[in-house]
Design a protein that fits this description.
The chain has about 425 residues and is an alpha+beta fold. It has three domains: about 1-40 and about 65-190, no CATH class; about 195-285, no CATH class; about 325-435, Sandwich (Immunoglobulin-like), CATH 2.60.40.10. Helix content is about 45%, strand content about 20%. Strands 8, 9, 10, 12 and 14 form a five-stranded antiparallel sheet that branches. Helix 4 crosses helix 8 (about 150-170). The longest helix is centred in the first third of the chain and has 26 residues, at about 105-130.
């Protein structure tokens, strides 16, 4: 998961797509590029729905498998693992680090400590640079950094995010999970007795006690647990899983790996600490029986809602119009009588091409006989271009006379001219005022 998540995070900003960055949230231009998809502030609803999908996905995963997200994919866990790798590279394993900390200061000790801190800072600052690269094109950002010409906000966010990564993953580590993360506080409301958690098999492990390798635990009246405490030593939050599930357990499964290694050495079956539901541990259920119990009402409701919202989200995205139009009656120009008694109203049309290729549009108006546009013309918009067009709508005098003093509904039709694809058309309602 460290490799997967970091390849995605660090790699996406460097990926080119249609001559630009594949994933770019351009706040200045108010455009958000996601591969072929271009979103605008008017598409904020999609962000809201995406957050709902993420929340329901997290609820579903938690109901089925507990805090597996925390243990394997959460940025805090992933970056902590990355920083611990840097620590092992520079200072050695746990025993070597303990000896280094106890040794008096020397050139070698200083070099190891400094190289660790330098590597941590490098990872943190590169993370901050990559984060800002999602909002500023990363190639131009890299050139600005190289020339020392970054803007104040870019400099601030690179430093802030880099130092936050350095502090959280390098120094705070599990303290973030224990005291700062809100998820750990309310996760229990999504658990039930059939949720897969990391659990200790009390019936098999008790009574605890040391014994020699190859000695039968049952002959000594003991359980399989030899009370080596390795499960406690490897736990990043310092809990003893043998005392039952606790809110500080992040589901990283380090205790499972440690206990399985001990069981292998002692000649006992693996699984003294394992993924299991509370009912599975209490009733001695097998893996297939526990997996069958995952299809319970809570999981089915989460799954149904998630599937329905995701399908609706994808359908809405794929069928969204390739253009946007807003029609506003020009309040600065009142209705007026022009040549031969014709009545003229002025409108402003805000037309947006949401695609990354040039498009041509034809504008028409209907609603009254004798209604016409001046000037009647087609407009052409470049890739993701937005333009304000001012148009006059005229009604001939003989048709306007019976409507004096009235406001009449009309409709604008804006149609994308066929260019080898199916033509698209948008209708916008407005009002036409005939002075008395």
């Amino acid at each position: 998961m460290v490799w997967l998540t970091q390849l995605v995070f660090y790699g996406l900003p460097w990926w080119s797509w249609n001559g630009r960055q594949a994933v770019l949230f351009d706040l200045d231009a108010r455009r958000f590029y996601l591969f072929d998809l271009v979103l605008y502030p008017q598409d904020f609803i999609y962000l809201a729905v995406l957050l709902v999908i993420c929340a329901l996905g997290l609820f579903l995963v938690t109901a089925v498998a507990g805090r597996v997200w925390c243990g394997f994919a959460c940025p805090q866990t992933v970056y902590t693992a990355l920083f611990m790798w840097a620590e092992r590279v520079t200072e050695g394993d746990r025993s070597a680090r303990m000896r280094l900390d106890a040794a008096p200061w020397s050139v070698a000790k200083f070099a190891r400590k400094a190289s660790k801190q330098g590597l941590w800072l490098g990872i943190g600052l590169w993370t901050g640079f990559t984060f800002v690269g999602y909002f500023t094109p990363i190639h131009s950002l890299g050139a600005s950094v190289w020339q020392g010409a970054t803007g104040p906000w870019e400099t601030f966010w690179m430093g802030f995010y880099g130092l936050a990564t350095y502090g959280n993953a390098g120094h705070l580590r599990e303290q973030v999970c224990k005291h700062m993360c809100p998820y750990g506080r309310f996760q229990s409301v999504m658990f039930d007795r059939d949720t897969l958690i990391i659990g200790y098999d009390t019936a098999r492990g008790e009574t605890r006690g040391p014994r020699s390798r190859g000695t039968s635990a049952r002959a000594l009246g003991q359980g399989d647990c030899i009370d080596c405490t390795l499960c406690v030593q490897v736990c990043p939050t310092g809990i003893d899983i043998r005392n039952g599930l606790q809110s500080n357990c992040i589901g990283c499964a380090a205790c499972i790996d440690a206990c399985d290694n001990v069981m292998d050495k002692m000649g006992s079956p693996r699984g003294l600490i394992r993924y299991a539901s509370q009912n599975g541990l209490d009733q001695g259920l097998g893996r297939k029986q526990m997996l069958k119990q995952t299809l319970r009402p809570r999981v089915l409701v989460y799954s149904g809602l998630l599937l329905a919202i995701t399908v609706a989200f994808m359908v809405s995205l794929t069928t969204r119009s390739p253009m946007r139009v807003n029609v506003i009656r020009d309040r600065g120009v009142l209705a007026r009588v022009v040549d031969q008694g014709a009545v003229e109203n002025v409108y402003r049309l805000q037309v947006m091409n949401t695609q990354e290729r040039t498009q041509r549009y034809r504008i028409g108006v209907v609603g009254l006989p004798g209604l016409a546009l001046y000037p009647a013309q087609d407009i052409e918009l470049g890739p993701v271009e937005e333009r304000s067009v001012t148009l006059s709508v005229r009604l001939h005098g003989e048709q306007a006379a019976p409507l004096a003093g009235q406001t009449v509904p009309i409709r604008f039709h804006i149609q994308r001219l066929p260019d080898g694809e199916a033509a698209h058309r948008i209708t916008e309602d407005s009002r036409f005022w005939v002075p008395g």
